[in-house]
Amino acid sequence: MSLVHTRMEKQTRKHEEKWVFPDKNTFFYGRQTGIFYVTVFIVFGTSALFFAVNFPYLATEPTPGLENMNGEYLISNPKVGAKPFSTQYSSYENVEYFDAYSPPITSKYGEVYWTMMDEVPLDKALVDRFNGKVMAIVGFEADQVMKTPEGDKSVPITWAYNHHFEAYLKGSLSEMRQATAEEAHKVGHTYGQKVWHTFKRQDIVDPTPDSGIPTSQWFSEGNGGEYRKSYHGYPKGKAQLIESPVSFQIQPMQIDTKNRFYNGSDFRPGALPASSAAPPNASYSGLLECPCSTRIPKNISVSYSTTSEGSCSTEIHNSKECFEAATKVEVENVVKTLEVNDSKMPSGCYFITSDNNTSIVYYNTIEDDDQSTVKCGGGDMTSGTLKSDAALVTVTIKLDASTSIATIILEGPSSNWFSVGINAPSFAMSDLPYTIVVDGNGNVSERKLGNHAPGTLIKQSVTVTSNSIADGVRTVTMHRNFAGITSDHYTFSSSISNLPLIFASGTSGTYAYHGAKLRSGGTVHFASIDSPTCICYEGVKGTINGIPFHKDCLPEPKSDLLAEKNPTCFVDTYQGGLACCHHEVVLLDKEQVQPSEEMTYHMKFRFWFQEYDEKVHDNLIRIYWQTEAMATEYDILKCEDSTARDDCIFTIKSNFTVRDMMNDCDTRNNSACWGDTSKFDGINLVYAGGHCHAPSCLLMELYNADTNQLLCRHDPVYGKSHEVFDELGYLAIPPCLYDSEDEGLMPPTFLSYDTNLFSIKQNNNTAAHYGEMASWQMRGILAKKNEEK
């Protein structure tokens, strides 16, 4: 059997229509002048693992005026012996396309561009045509281009590396907004920065709320360095549906790698930070892996927490660390530290705070044979204080379990407003916390904070018992019941030990924007009054570029990164990746001078569509998993220098189920939803694409672990020249498609919700690599067992 790889031959084809490119964001509908590419493939190899062998092909000549934007594509699992599946979009009946361009992207060498861009309105004629109607998107193509009088000029991937993108078509009933932490988890966004997504608007009456037709669509398949020559089309009759499309919006992550001091036709890397893992004279820039340069500050410390109920999962193991930890969790008014051996008190590190607000810290050395069974806490009263120097606010919260009354003491500038937001796990307004605001006149109000917005006033539940001013500081004492009077009011519990808060204050007495500096966040640690509060070891924590470091590296069998101690999982070993690659970060060391020359270009998308026919089209749901579950990325560790190159293979694995990928919510409200899963037994897989960065990707495989059936295998296709679309060292990842044999495809495989799946990913590790990804970006339809459609 033959495995087929690619070589590109460029041909210029001029159509009967020529477009003039305006300076502003643009949208095109119909035909346009462009570049047409034909692929020719001959490379040999064998594989005994395939259930269907890769056998890409040349498609028939496309319909004039409806050529693919990026030329011919491959798929990984055509049906052997059947009529070849055509990746020419013109092979669809009554197919049309429209082009959409992002606003300009402008960057300098070494700079990261990663932000949600402004929306681009679609052509009015198209919007009017589909007003109240449904468009069926049968696929899309993408490129990065400079606009010239002669037409679009593709930007080499060696100039601007696309790490990934999230692209959206919005309908008239949808909106783009920053997701809450819970919403971000549901949509599978784990790329490590502010999460934006499209949702159905709640302020507009939906005329057909039960239709199930999405009001927006999300395009994130093959969305990295492989995006231009990886196929993003679907079998006939399968589509991403959207009602009343009105605009295009994209959040690209681009890394400027264009060497400003070399003008040859081949690639030569520019200046790289010392932390770059790329070997000398590599065919790729080490910047595309986001090395943590010396411009990006990293702060690392051991973290501790308190608990006033139960015991520590990990204890502190010596008195010196115990007494230092008491300082870090801000135990107040420590008058004494003692080492004891007492079976009537908790083992390890604890402190007791008296009613007069003084504390004694103890380290209990009781041996394992005489282990104390005494737990932390036990009293009715707990109290915690947290001061924010940045926001000029201090809060004390006292909880009385005997009366279920919380006392809140809030201090801030006497003439300006100040506030505390309670229960903000991300220390951000996007957590939408319950918030207490004191204005410049001492008036107290309660709010449900908005997402970077002032939020809404809610019914007052606190009773103010004192309000005084001394030395320019206002102190307000108030009481309220533990239980919130509505779902917007936070409900306290005497069992909480740590509570994340955010603070802000203003520059006037009237509640308004707080400014960039007068805000902060932190965790208040509660102490039991007159009973022991334990101090627990939480591990090494830290920040990168001022942002708290967090990774969801799951334990086996979901992922093997933790077991292998992959450096990406821990802040103290993190060397490169998304945490060092936020918007406008410069990936050069402090002493390296960034060239001043700017580069401006656009992301370009071509969406292929049909008019929706409910008898023909099935809506494709998004099915997503990370082999690196759910770290989003991982490091490829370098093999020993003595190892032969062919034996330098780094492997990661993941075991998961279809149910792990399920997103049981209304497809109309959110394009990441699956709909009502209770009406079906599982999914039929239609499209499976891998996300696998150049330059080391070797193999991705997905198995039904219950039957050992190979569902999909990717052998990346690497470029061989310095031509755009065939750049040396960069790749395409032909997806797996499933439909009827008449289409030249393998049939869909039904997978129940409880089907066990297994993913394996291999990379060459002759050199080390940071920030590699191994996502399965898939589409399918809900199905009943043995259902043919």
Oligomer type: single chain
Number of domains: 3
Q: Give the uncertain stretches in residue-range form.
A: 1-60
Strand percentage lies at 35-45%
Mean pLDDT: 89
Number of helices: 4
Q: How would you summarize this macromolecular structure in one to three sentences?
A:
The strands form twelve sheets. Strands 2, 4, 5, 8, 9, 14, 36 and 37 form an eight-stranded mixed sheet that branches. The protein contains four helices and 50 strands.
Explained architecture:
3% of the residues lie in helices and 40% in strands. By secondary structure, it is mostly beta strands. It folds into three domains: 481 residues, no CATH class; 87 residues, no CATH class; 144 residues, Immunoglobulin-like. A hairpin with a 5-residue loop joins strand 26 and strand 27. The radius of gyration is 29 Å and the shape is globular. The N terminus is likely disordered.
Record keyword descriptors for this entry.
Immunoglobulin-like, disordered N terminus, 3 domains, six-stranded mixed sheet, 50 strands, 789 residues, eight-stranded mixed sheet
